Give the backbone structure.
Amino acid sequence: MEQVRMAKDYDYLLKVLLVGDSDVGKHEIISGLEDGSSESPFCSGSAYKTTTILLDGKRVKLQLWETSGQGRFSTIIRSYSRGAQGIILVYDITNKWSFDGIGRWLKEVEEHAPGVPKVLVGNRLHLAFKRQVAAKQAELYASRHKMACFEISPLCDFNIRESFCELARMALHRNGMERIWRSNKVLSLQELCCRTIVRRTSVYAIDTLPLPPTVKSHLKSYALTSSQCINTLTNNSKNRRVKTPTQTNSTRNSCCIS
């Protein structure tokens, strides 16, 4: 039991930096996440938070560093971009000036963290009636610079988890995890419901739920995939020669976040 308690609660750890002009809503993006401290222990110019996602049966812990967009904090970008495995470039879809400034942040990041996977994020999609940046314009810009592109809304909890999962997938693939290929931009309504239910119950309690057998089976695939990671860590702590079990077939096509 002591070995299980001492085992890490994640399989991979990634450092992610959120950059962009001030008032684009970087703090809004991470403020609603669970798990971890909300302030950086090192610098008052940035906020720090952690969250864990489940990606293709692996628990990926993200260290999210939100930096100030003010010019006087440019030294923070230089400092914290070193060692980062992923970059999220944030702009406000209702502020064209913030989108025009992405090029400056991209240049800064490429100088200090060349080749690191990046995701372009248009924040405040719930204010689309005030839109100043067209979605197509952002997608073309992201495509030219080989970035993924998402429009998100912290108010509606829309595409935030999916953008994190896509960046983590890109980062892990860059570091040799070729099996993690699938995009996580869109989830079906059924999958969103299953993810929420599994997060609030155990695999043994699923049979007691008043649901059709097919739905219970789908829920079990989520729960069993999550528990498989825990069993893998437990077995490896007892015997280092035991190979990691192959991933079971599942109807799950994306990811979940805890």
